[in-house]
Amino acid sequence: MGGAVETRGEYPPEWPAIAMAVKKEAGWRCVRCGHPDPPDLKPRGLAPCDYRCTHDSRWVRTHKKRVLTVHHLDGDKANCVWWNLLPLCQVCHLQIQAKVDPRVPYLWEHTEWFRIYAAGFYALWFGGRQIERPETATEIQYWLTQGQPWLYLRRPDREYGWDDDNEKGAP
Hints:
Shape: globular
Mean pLDDT: 85
Strand content: 5-15%
Structural class: mainly alpha
Helix content: 25-40%
Largest sheet: 2 strands, antiparallel
Radius of gyration: 18 Å
Low-confidence stretches: 161-171
Distance between the termini: 25 Å
Number of strands: 2
C-alpha cells in the first residue's frame, strides 16, 4: 500500500448514477474522516464539521472545502465493484490516491474504515473471487489473513492464528 496507483480506463456511461449511489450508501459522508457533504447544500463542500468528523477541524478557519468524491482503489475507472469505490472527501481522496496501491503489501493493520475494502480486494487478488460486501463482512478475517499473513498467522489472539498443537511458543 505504498505509492500512488496509476489511474487508467474510462468511466462507464452510468458513472453519475453509480457515484451518487455510493455517496448515498455512505450517508453523504467521507468513510475515512466522517465529514458530511449533503447533496442539497450549495455551494458543495461547505458543510460544517460535526461530532462524527475525525479530521482536524482547523479547515473551517481556512475555508478548505471537503466535497465528497468516489475514489477507485485500484485506479481503474471502469472497475465499479463495491470494494473499488471509496466515498472520500477530496482531501482524503488525494491522500489515499497518493499513498495507497492495494497491490503493494501493507505491513501494518488496516484502519477500521478500510478493512472491508481491503478484504474485498484481497478476495479477488488472492482468491480469484468477486464477492459482495455482506459475504466479505462475514469472511473479513479470512481475507485479511490472505492479504496480510504476517499480521494474522501464528497469533493466538486471531481467529486464523496457530492452533495449540502447532509450534507452541512461536512468536
